[in-house]
Amino acid sequence: MGDLKDVFSLQLFFAFVVPGIIATYVRAQFLTGRIPSAKDNIFEIVVLSTIYYSVFIVLIHPLIDTIHYRLYRDAAWIALTIVGPAVFGIALGVAAQRHYFARIAARFDLSLVHVVPTAWDWCFSNLNKRLLRHGNPDRRTNGRGLLRHEFFFIV
């Protein structure tokens, strides 16, 4: 009986944790910062999996029920568990990068907490990879080969 419980626990893990981990990982590829650890954000991962299933199971489940071959049905469930969350993560990442949720919230006079922890992280994540270097015009150095008054401006 202990083996059945372990198999059931493994099924629950794959059903409610793996889609959230995949969606979180793919979403993080579109945002600046480190990828949050699954151990620290288990609640967020389970909620993300639940939202994913509540949106996509309504659309996909009727299609899966019409498949009569077991191999195709299993492949469809694997796609629902692995490929679907990746697409969901891409959609969430693009929406976060383009600030779609903030725009929708602004229409209802709501403010969202920004996902970037500090202003410097946001500033340097939105650079167009162009920095203009402006140094001291007389080119005197401070003994380390650096200009004494060296400034960097974001263009």
Sum this structure up briefly:
By secondary structure, the chain is mainly alpha-helical.
Give structural notes.
With 155 residues, this protein is mainly alpha-helical. The chain contains 6 helices and 2 strands. The chain has helices at residues 2-16, 18-28, 42-66, 70-97, 100-107, 119-125; strands spanning 131-134, 151-154. The chain has a two-stranded antiparallel sheet with strand order 1-2. The longest helix has 28 residues, at 70-97. It is elongated. It starts with a helix and ends with a strand.
Name some characteristics of this structure.
155 residues; mainly alpha; 6 helices; two-stranded antiparallel sheet; single chain; elongated
Low-confidence regions: 132-138, 147-151
Count of distinct strands? 2
Q: Cα distance, first to last residue?
A: 66 Å
Strand content: 5-15%
How are the strands of the largest sheet arranged? 1-2
Shape: elongated
Fraction of residues in helices?
55-70%
Mean pLDDT: 76
State the helix count.
Answer: 6
Gyration radius from CA atoms, angstroms: 24 Å
Order of helices and strands: HHHHHHEE
Secondary structural class: mainly alpha
Largest sheet: 2 strands, antiparallel
Write the layout of secondary structure elements.
Blueprint: H1 2-16, H2 18-28, H3 42-66, H4 70-97, H5 100-107, H6 119-125, E1 131-134, E2 151-154
Antiparallel strand pairs: 1-2
